[in-house]
Amino acid sequence: KKHIFEAHCQQKKTVTGQINISSSEMTAFDLVKYMNASGQVHHVATVLSELVEFLDPERLSEIVKNNDCDITSAQRLGYLLEALKLPFDLRPLEHQLNQKKKSRRLLVVSSQEPIIDYNKRWHIEVNEKLEPDDLWYRKLKLFLGEIMRLGAASIKLSTTLWFRARYVSYIKTQ
Hints:
It contains eight helices and five strands.
């Protein structure tokens, strides 16, 4: 990356001293911008599914507002976060993008796959099916979170078959 925005860096203490690291929000934009170097869309989606708990919707929109990222990366990031169905408020990002001039963009520029869908909200031409590496694991975490929310404080999973049956039932109701 040629230009690093110091406003989006954090200092972390290590055993050898202080180092500057990118904020979670800037990391998300960089993952999408440098998708080829990041390991393609599936790996980016996997990382985003773990990174989302550290993202702040308002900080994402501020980065877009201050033109500290390109609009195409913001469109792709918005699409990916929505497509992954992550518990994240995308309205501030969408609001800032609506203030900018957007155009239709491919999800994966280097892909030879045909366009399979068009997302009007983010103006993204979807040309790759999104398959994050840990999709099953992420849905499992959501399933367990839902059980805990319903008040089942201690759950004993006696067999894998029992667990899978309950998981499949939960997914079918979603």
